[in-house]
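Researcher: Quick sanity check before group meeting.
Model: Go ahead. Protein one:
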Amino acid sequence: MAQVAGQESTVSWIFTFGFILMPGVVVGVLLGWAEHLRTTGGRRGWRWLALSPFLFALFNPAALAVALLGTAGGYAVSRRGPLWARIASGLFAVAIIPLWSVIATAVGGPRLALDTPRGAWIAVYLYSFLAVLALACAIPHRPVVAVPERPTPETAEVLSLERGALPSE
């Protein structure tokens, strides 16, 4: 935040931790849980975790754009669903690139103009953080990994025979 706000940047419990960091932790935990569920066979309704970035908007309505861009980007790179919908989502998600060049100075004044070093740096921050969020938001859309069955004593003996072990008597 200090990169964007500059010298006027302050840290407070409620705004910094309550409205920025805490929702980020919760969204990260939910998307991490989605990866755990995905790799352990999935569960009923687990794909709803794709909407977890909207918790950002619950804590801070101004962050609705972040949630929209992240979820749209996640759907676009997920390789699931109709191609036309993924293309439309991808175009929506990358629209921030030209849009930021137009609104950057309105957000942070002339110091965030993209033709300044600080403005270029903030743009890289913004694009990279949104790209990471989009990749994380793709997790609930990815295919479920099948959980291998645990071998029973009978199948364990067959597996050991296939590996060249001598049969037990």
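Researcher: Fine. The other one?
Model: Protein two, sequence then structure:
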Amino acid sequence: MTKHTQAEGPPGRRMPAAEPAAASKRVNKAAGKTKSKPANKPVSTKHGEAAIDVRIYNAVVNAVMSHKLPPGTRLGEAEFCELYGVSRTTVRKALQRLAHDHIVDLRPNRGAVVASPSPQEARDVFAVRRALEREIVPLVIRHITPASIARIRAALDAEEQARRSGDRAAWIRLGGEFHLLLAELANNAVLQRFMVELVSRSSLIIAVYENPGAPMCGNHEHHDLMALIQKGDVAGATALIEHHLEEIEARLHLDTPERKLSLAEALFGR
């Protein structure tokens, strides 16, 4: 068993990062045609507003999980309105959902900011993750099927491809999604729901406390874990997942802040 570890990422929503309003398109289902939406023009239908509400949510989640939007970054409603061409009501819905998932904090007189977990919260989150994932691994082994193994292998291949291409953002996101896949394969909806929140909060913690220049190590422990799951080795797989999470926590520097980017720079690279 190797001690190489990797950063964990995002919440397990496989959504592409949103694009600015000028580049977006919406489908006119009644006409069966694709229609371009002009830049900075509010969407006039409730359906369109709801769709952009989800896009804003996913864009922020992806930016946070890939470390482009550091904790403490202010998320101004007016800037979202300008970037997406929507009303403040739509933006507030997205921010409220982000706050519910502990990705942002809504502060009186300050608006929304990306959540900033404390060192003690970091320790608490990883302690809970170790406890939950010790329960998840035996359930995965109990319910394992050839199709499950194929999904795990595909997830590992995607991680490795991201690492080799140097795509750190994708690598971080896929690392977190690997753990969420295990939670799904455990066939326990309550555990899976808890893990979605914990992986999101773990990525925030890593965004604050991990050395930004840390190398992208190979996902050896994820591969080792898959091998133990295939063998049905409950004790070995449980010990490995605990060690894996301990190693990730040990790499954190609890007194090193991250630099902040503007919202437009984080979401759209400008």
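Researcher: One line on it for the slide.
Model: Confidence is low (pLDDT under 50) at residues 1-7, 9-45.
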